[in-house]
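Illustration: MFS transporter.
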Amino acid sequence: MNRHGGRWIDHWEPDDPAFWQGTGRRVAIRNLALSILAENLGFSVWILMSVVVTYLGQAGFRFDLTQTFWLLIVPNLVGAALRIPYTFAVPRFGGRGFTAFSALVLLVPTGMLAVAVSDPGTPYWFFLLTAALMGLGGGNFSASMANISFFFPEGRKGVALGINAAAGNLGVAVAQLVVPVVIHLGTGLQLAYAALMWMPLLIVAAAASWLRMDSLTSAKPDGVSYRLAMRARQTWIMSFLYIGTFGSFIGFSFTFPLLVQQEFAGRAGFVGLAFLGPLIGSLSRPLGGWLADRLGGARVTLWTFAAMAAGVAGVLLSLRQDAFWLFFGAFVWLFVLAGLGNGATYRMIPLIFAAQERARPGGSAGAARRQAAAAVGIVGAVGAAGGVLINLGFTFSRQAAGSLGPALAAFLLFYAACMAITWWYYLRTALAAERSPSLAHAKV
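Result:
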């Protein structure tokens, strides 16, 4: 393993067993651990406004419900938009340098939030700008996944990326668990603590990344594979399905605390339990991948969407009956299923491209892996944008009908459409199979 200035590694051969056992494994695990730290903090800052908005009224701010929802929509939108640029930033600037930068730059929105919540006279536009900059934390996921993918051999890459994704997603639960406790330390409501508490952690993460992580000269941007993936129909089919899984996870994560407060004002004290949904959803993601390996990703995805439709029906019923625990339980159910679906759909992507390359004259396994890696970045970005659609749905539903009913009905229909698409493209064996073949034979 050859190094040159700035902790750049020139020789990296993780698929060579001798290299991997000798030095590669140790270096890869160290980079994975530090990448997880920065990514986890990125998710925490990205989602932070979901907790803060539930206390703005108590702190003297008078934003209406639509304004409040936009404080949740904006960071989600910015985070989704940054996912593809952040993916390309790693090969351009190096994993070490960009990980340190991505942690350090989050000091800007956290500092701005501390200032904003300290004065009830802070204008709404300043809150919107702060929320937009919090979206920088949402891009960290793609940078981390792209960086770690270069360090591990093909046979271990799936496990490493699964751990990286799940551990990063846990940042949502950490923020929603810890912030309600921290802001009540001392006398009265200390809302600025919600921002200040992350600043020393971000500095530690940036310093640790700069001092102990590595960059690989072999990590090159693959523009050709990205262009091919952008033109591939399967990329966009899987993007649609990932809106239903990860889009649901991040969209519900942003809005769940506010929904608890708004729909059940007498139970506002239970906002502090909202972290349970993202926590269980993050932990269920690896289980989704495990089930996909054994039962098939398409089959797991289909049944996940069916169960999510049932979960939405449970939320609708809870609102009609004013049943808080049914509402809370149905949402936790949705988080569990979104996590399972995240793992299952991600597992499908490499299998889909491998099957298509096998069917193509002159196709190669290497080309399939490169296109699948590119597709994962695109699918992840589109899926994150699904969270924006979730929150826009709730916003417009509230404005037009004064309730969440229309939005929830739309989500139910969307999950039904995801079921139909999954079946048509990946499980259908008979209906119109000759005229429009599916990938059922590949057992993706």
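Reading the tokens back as a structure: The chain has two domains: 1-220, 222-444.
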